[in-house]
Each structure stands twice: as C-alpha cells, then as structure tokens.
C-alpha cells in the first residue's frame, strides 16, 4: 500500500502454493501496533499471527488471480498489510484481480463466523480467552478491513477497481475524475469517522440480519485511526490533483 518494500537481511521468505512470499521486518512492527492492547499485552503475539493469516489470505486472492491470467505474481508483506505484484491486464481482468483480495478475506470471515455453528466450537470460545481473542481479531480483519479496502480511493483495492472502470468507460479526463473521486471518497470516510468518534457511534454498523446465528461481537475499527488514515489519503489526493492542475 505504501510503496515497494526493499529487501533486507531480516526478511522472512518462503513459498505457499508455489507463490513466493517475503515478509519485511516492518510488517511485524506495524502488526504489533495494530493489535496492541495495553490491558492484554500477552495476546500481542497471537494477534500478530492472526493478522498474518488475514493479510496472507487477502494477498493470496490477488496473487492467485494474477497467476490465473499468466502473470507470476509474488507477495510482499509490508507496512500495514502488503501487496501482490501485478501487471496491466484488460479492464475486467484488472477488476477481478483487485476484487479477489477483499473477496478472499470476506470468504474467510464467513467460514470463521459460521464455524461457531459446529458443535463444540462455541464452548471452546467460551472456555478459552485466547481462542476467543483470536476469533475476534480474525473476524475483525477479515470483515472490517476488507470492507474498508473497497472504498473507491487509491491505492486501496476499491480505488484500483474504480480507476480501471473509469479508464475503460469514461476515458475523457479520466485521470482528473479519478483524483476527484478519491478526494470525495476518502474525505467523506474521514468525516464520517470523525462524526462517529465524537458521538460514540460504530463506524461500520452491521445489521443483525446480515450476521445470523448465535450473537457474537465483531470489533469495530478505531475511528481515530480511520480519521488519520483516510485524512492522509485525502490530503495526498488533493496534492496530486493540484499538481495535475498546475497549482
């Protein structure tokens, strides 16, 4: 998400399903920050492992789709997530590659959520705090983070999808319109997060009918982080827009 990660002597490298994977050291630090809980610091290690699984599933969705179309994609886990190397495909192949990541994460979320219907799983979650904590982290990152990734703002997957469609169906002044959409989408998300922060509201309210089965709490994203994150994306989009207009 934030540029390409240069190789270091401390990288962890391996293959999964024939796809090369490299984990940059900053991934571990940023992951620890994301899952840090001052009230339960002992769970940071488990949280980082859960985040590793979530990010890998997301990036595998991108990489597997790229390889399906003939590009030898590789995965790098980096700051606040990671990326799967890609190339230019046709419009709808680009859309499918971009959507495959969030789709893979959302499928994992559904599998985990409905696994609670398997006899004995709920009892284990009730009995073991660590298991319940891991389930919370996995559900959060595979639902909330993948939904946020679909916001139509670059460099998020939603922005990549929007960009591909704009260049295909509205090519006239597409670059300018893409920047404008990024500004509006990221700005509105930042303002909504700020509103939720001030009024103690959930950033992503999930209707009960959308998650049937035994009640289970899915953590909400931190609105302060979202204000900063999408505010940064909005400011970056404004700067790029002004530069393109010669301002």
Span between N and C termini? 26 Å
Helical segment tally? 8
The portion of residues assigned to helices is 55-70%
What is the overall shape?
globular
Approximately what portion of the residues adopt beta-strand conformation?
5-15%
Largest sheet: 4 strands, mixed
Q: Unreliable stretches, pLDDT < 50, 5 or more residues?
A: none
Average pLDDT rating? 91
Please give a structural write-up:
The protein has 247 residues and is an alpha+beta fold. The chain contains eight helices and four strands; from the N terminus they run E-E-H-H-E-E-H-H-H-H-H-H. The chain has helices at residues 25-35, 44-68, 91-115, 121-127, 129-148, 157-169, 174-199, 223-244, and strands at 12-16, 19-23, 75-78, 81-84. A four-stranded mixed β-sheet has the order 1-2-3-4. The longest helix is centred in the last third of the chain and has 26 residues, at 174-199. The two termini are 26 Å apart.
Topology:
Blueprint lengths: L11 E5 L2 E5 L1 H11 L8 H25 L6 E4 L2 E4 L6 H25 L5 H7 L1 H20 L8 H13 L4 H26 L23 H22 L3
Parallel strand pairs: 2-3
Antiparallel strand pairs: 1-2, 3-4
Helix pairs in contact: 1-2, 2-3, 2-5, 3-5, 3-6, 4-5, 6-7, 7-8
List keywords for this structure.
alpha+beta; 247 residues; 4 strands; 8 helices; 60% helix
Can I get a quick summary?
By secondary structure, the protein is an alpha+beta fold. The chain contains eight helices and four strands.
